[in-house]
Amino acid sequence: MRRQTLSNGWPRNPGMELDLSWVLDTRINLSSAERRVASLPGRRTVKKDAQAAWLLKAVTCIDLTTLNGDDTPERVKRLCAKAMNPVRLDILEALGMNRRAITTGAICVYHRYVTTAVEALGDSGIPVAAVSTGFPAGLSPHHLKVKEIEASVADGAKEIDIVITREHVLTGDWLALYREMQDYRAASGEAHVKAILATGDLKTLRNVARASLVCMMAGADFIKTSTGKEGVNATLGVTLAMLRMIRAYEERTGFKVGYKPAGGISAAKDILNYQFLMKDELGREWLEPDLFRIGASSLLADIERQLEHHVTGAYSALNRHPIG
């Protein structure tokens, strides 16, 4: 495999041999994790200009998403237009940021709309991410999952968000999960792969941590919490477990892996806690879109609303901040 790098020059995670002893030795102290995340809101806070800066940084990490059964080409085109101009110009001017090229991190769509999104985004530099492998359940035949990835890459997707087979985790078949993830990575070629663990279906933080490790060993570029379709999606507790595994993997291999919380993150105040936890656990590098993405749609509208409040002192209705 040709050695690849991220846009900032860091080497892309090539994966490693499956180390079952490392996987099986992995444990999570649930009470300690709960105390850690419960203390976060009281330990970290930002106000005024600092808060606006953090929220603008969050905008650049959003994978602006539409994954609905009633999606249409026009909806996708409107979403792409919003991705290229995510914050109103008058707000950016008031913040002194109108000369900065602020866009979202990516557009995330079903395979059917990859070509539509690629054409709508043009030369903006915003990548298209395609959800794949039988999203959201991941129960399609394996060969069809691989073909779906290949088709999305052929249509211009630069990122592939795959869903793992939860059964492999729940039954402890780590070799099957490893081989599955390897096949997805190979089918993606130079497109970067985000492994969706569907953490709400995995039952325990130990399962989440072990699945995170196995996917990274198999070459995942990102590990992602959820499809957004599970009963429980991204949480700070799950985030902490996954970030600790990313840190352990980097310490062992030297390779950085990204993180993407998704599902249920709709308020600006909530994303700040995720950013604080990222910085505390992994460092400043993980606040950039190369290593941090947020799967969201309505979150952008609330961020824009909070930024308008910062510059005007008044809250506006959410319907004044459409996402597409």
TrEMBL record:
One of its GO terms (biological process) is carbohydrate catabolic process. GO terms for molecular function: deoxyribose-phosphate aldolase activity. The keyword rRNA processing does not apply. It catalyses: 2-deoxy-D-ribose 5-phosphate = D-glyceraldehyde 3-phosphate + acetaldehyde. Its EC number is 4.1.2.4. Keywords: Lyase, Schiff base. Pathway: Carbohydrate degradation; 2-deoxy-D-ribose 1-phosphate degradation; D-glyceraldehyde 3-phosphate and acetaldehyde from 2-deoxy-alpha-D-ribose 1-phosphate: step 2/2. The keyword tRNA processing does not apply. Pfam families: DeoC. GO terms for cellular component: cytoplasm. CDD domains: DeoC. Belongs to the DeoC/FbaB aldolase family. DeoC type 2 subfamily. PANTHER family: DEOXYRIBOSE-PHOSPHATE ALDOLASE. This is Deoxyribose-phosphate aldolase. It comes from Phyllobacterium sophorae.
